[in-house]
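G., before I forget:
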Amino acid sequence: MGRYILTRLAYMATALFIIISLTFLLMQLLPGTPYSNADELTDTQIQQLNQKYGLDKPLAIQYAKYIGNLLQGDLGDSYKYEGRSVNQIIGERIGPSALIGMQGLIIGTIIGLILGVISAIRHNTIFDYGAVFLAVLGMSIPSFVFAALLQYYIGVKLGWLPPALWDGYQNTILPSIALSVLVMATVARYIRTEMLEVLGYDYVITAKAKGISSSAVIIKHVVRNSLIPVLTMMAPLVVSIITGTLVIEKIFAVPGIGEQFTNSILINDYSVIMGITLFYSVIFIAVIFIVDLLYGVLDPRIRLDGGVKQ
Amino acid sequence: MKIDYSEITDDLFTPDSIVNENKDEIINKERISFWKDAWIRLRKNRGALIGLLLIILIIMMSLFGPYLTKYNYDEQNIAFSNLPPMVPGLEWLGFNGQDSFNVNQYEERGITENFWFGTDQFGRDIWTRVWIGTRISLYIALLAATLDLIIGVAYGSISSFFGGKVDNFMQRIIEVLVGIPNLILIILFILVLEPGIISITLAMVITGWVGMARVVRGQILQLKGQEFVLASRTLGTSNRKLLTEHLLPNTLGPIIVTLMFTIPTAIFFEAFLSFIGLGLQPPIASLGILIDDGYKSMKLFIYKMIFPAVVISTIMISFNLLADGLRDALDPKMKR
Amino acid sequence: MEPILSVNNLNVSFQTYEGEINALRGVSFRVNKGETLAIVGESGSGKSVTAKTIMKLLSKQNSCINGGEVIYNGQNLIPFGERAMRKIRGSEISMVFQDPMTSLNPTMTIGKQIVEGLRQHEKMSKKEARKRATELLNLVGIPNPEERLSEFPHQFSGGMRQRVVIAIALACNPKVLIADEPTTALDVTIQAQILDLMNNLQKKLQTSIILITHDLGVVANMADRVAVMYAGEIIEMGSIDEIFYSPQHPYTWGLLASMPKLHADRSERLLPIAGSPPDVSQLSDGCSFAARCPYAMKVCHKYNPLKTDVTGSHSVSCWLQDKRAGKVDSAIEIGEISYAT
């Protein structure tokens, strides 16, 4: 198991390094300058600003400085907002995003599991067909369409929940629901598929032949062994949540990182864009790592044979 | 069904063996090719069929829809601005030309022409714009999917076919690439390349080919171990022939399925990018742009967003249903 | 002596895409205490269905028990509900399945899987259960049982795994053990070990065994009595000597003749039974074997044969038994049956 962890860590580090370098490279290729009032500045002024931000040094030096800063956890300063560092901005905004993101993920996973397990047990009944139908809808309809519709019908027309802004806990509900839909549909679908297969496995009949009750068999044998595909999907689902927050925060006016990201893109605040990109990448890689560890917990074959995946 | 044994007469006890008439082990079903078999199974899947029909319908509409009205997608006419949808005969469904205050705008402003999906703030016909937008969205998706296919198949087949060090190396690259969230890469690429059809497509391809490559590699690795490949090799088949005539045709199934799944992903991404402002620029309108436009005036004119939203959702649902059905139909192990 | 298990006229059908299939069409047999009954037949003859029906493990969604009884301990199990059956399963009647690779849960330790069955039926603490589990592993011949309790199935070899499966099945001292092709998935040498094990355990514990197999070699090794199944019916049943040395049904002759013999001349061809097993969804009147039987008569194609008793313990369903049938020159010496194709 130790070797398994080390290998995964090595991959994490490599991936991170490549992302950092790639982001740096891309930043160099971005057209124009990062200064908002570039047209009004004279060339000398631009030169001065470049000097101030160190943008006039050769690439290699900029790169080295960049890496150096990163190792100290410094993501640089915003080009657009005077005196604000990227770390600060992320720090202020991470709260709302994390809140709706986690809520969305947790609600989606729990409800998805329940729906999926029940429809597998009640295979070929109305419940099953209904659940599958809803799952297809949930996976196909784009999250921002859902979000917009939720906002309109529940927020505006019915007024049950606040349609936007960030005043109190109830403001988190609609965004979280919008984010949870894809998670719910994916989890339900994957666990259902896996369970249907596992239910046909011999060891399920063996368990029944021992006199164990159906529900005990399902909970102790079937569900646990069906979780692996769901776990596999966790990493892409986290990505979908991150992606989702980009639009959902915009729609619901949530002051989170996603909203900041889209704004920064529109105003070309390069350092913030880069900083947030790296931040997201770190989260993603960490999630992959955690998922890999959890594989070991769920499936002893992986744990004991040092990561030999089927 | 009670048998009356008293009916049995003595003469029935004469030899009457029909053993010689039977051929051993008749294969009693007619030979069906793999593809025909897959098609039969696909047909049984109602969801997939519905998906297929809807896709065909939407493609037809995107091709011919704009010509059903006399308006162009960019024809502006302020006199017609912000008209709710009006379809004579379908008023009961909501196509009654009434705005959110239930005032029939057509009567109010004395307009005699009917706009089936209504108009936007510039008086442009939404029906036409939706179908042109569909065209563009589909085009981008197909382009991206095709490029994904070419690159992915090439990479995956080379990697798995040659195996060993080559495979290892190529796989490491993929493993690292996978560690980078797609969307971020896409956004960065678009920032660099300036939004436009080609740049969006390229950006999606750069990150999308990996899925196809992995599927192809997995399938070929599995096939390589099977005996028909060994048999071919012992007959002296060249590598190239082995790849093109034996391995790839047997990989077509998963390739098609992956392709079918790639398309809705591409459509989603394009719409998503448009929604956050990184998509195509006006006056070109893709479905994503239309939804974004519609969203901006959602409170007053919900119809502007509903139509493109319904179309895009239908496309995504249909492709997902079809792809699902194809995956079940093309998987030979899943015989019911 | 009362039989420990009696199956009378069992009728089971399945609903499939192609219509209703009558998998069991009037199956009857008995098993006595401490004896081994082998049920022999080709794939599709209904052997596994019989086993699963006794344990009521058939999927309720598409199967239907249309008639018959399964008498155990004086009670008919067929009307039993799930709760009542659960008391029987594992503790009175147990089952061993074919493939040890897949019949054990890969993510649960062996110990847990044995203990699960034990604690379901007997009141014991976890400690006591583990102790008993260790004894069981010892019983089936697994070395280092205490350590192996915490191991997972994939850490055992195929033969070892099957021993574990047997240990689980015998954990609560069932009176009847149903073994569905227990050695088919194993190497021949391991096969012999497992059969030996089962024989020894049977002597020790006096368990009755219903052994389901298609392999006559296994039958010869283990069985006291044999029932031959074809197309959902038992067409011949008797003691092992009766079946091997004076078989009466042409299908049984075919089975015996098709076994490759150690002492046979290399140049002798193997003798298969002509044709293939019938499509059970489309059975016509008459004997189900008639189409493949070289001794078939007109009556065989029209009427299903009655069950007749050759001796007190030997019964067969075949029109050749009828007085009116001509004498078949049944050269019963195995291997010398003339079988024209």
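Chain C is about 30% helix and 20% strand. Residues 188-205 of chain C form the longest helix (18 residues).

More on Monday.
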